[in-house]
Amino acid sequence: MTTPTSMFPGDDTLARLAAVIESRKGADPSSSYVARLFHKGTDTILKKVGEEATEVVIAAKDGAADKIVYEVADLWFHSMVALAQFGLGPADVLAELRRREGLSGLEEFAARTHPPKP
Fold first, then answer.
1. Cβ–Cβ < 8 Å for 34, 23
2. Cα distance between residue 102 and residue 53, in whole Å
3. How far apart are CA 32 and CA 16, in angstroms?
4. What is the mean pLDDT of each run of 10 residues along the chain (118 residues)?
5. Nearest to 90 by CA among 76, 101, 108, 103
6. In angstroms, rounded to a whole number, what is the distance separating the alpha carbons of residues 51 and 48?
7. Which pLDDT score, from 0 to 100, does residue 104 have?
8. How far is CA 81 from the centre of its chain?
């Protein structure tokens, strides 16, 4: 198993990627894939997230580690585009994960009846 480099202090890969995604929101859709996604709107962005999630499942069923990593990277990327569409970023997700630290997954699931509201 490889060492999760994003767990090291100072690794700001997700923050840098979020900044690039944000900078492409107003770019020309003919020159930027991300701009094209934003131009096409929420439904297109969410469809891509769904497609990438399915590709992760297929890769995992095949069991090839390199394919799994590749597809999860695609899923994370498109999920970050979806976050940006709603004015959110990786820091919001990381804060939620920190909130859940130390909680039993079963206890956390039982405690919520609905997703938290802003």
1. no
2. 27
3. 17
4. 53 92 96 98 98 98 97 98 97 91 72 64
5. 76
6. 5
7. 74
8. 7
Question: Please, what's the b/e burial string for 17-37 (b: 16 or more CB within 10 A of its CB; e: otherwise)?
Answer: bbeebeebeeeeeeebebbeb
* pLDDT at residue number 116: 62
pLDDT for 1: 46
Distance CA 19, CA 14 (A): 9
Helices (H), 1-118: 13-23, 33-40, 42-62, 65-85, 90-100, 105-111
Residue indicated by tokens 């990786």: 90
Interacting residues of 25 by C-beta distance below 8 A, sequence separation 6+: 34, 35, 38, 84
Q: In this structure, which amino acid lies at residue 30? A: S
Per-residue confidence (pLDDT) for residue 109, from 0 to 100: 67
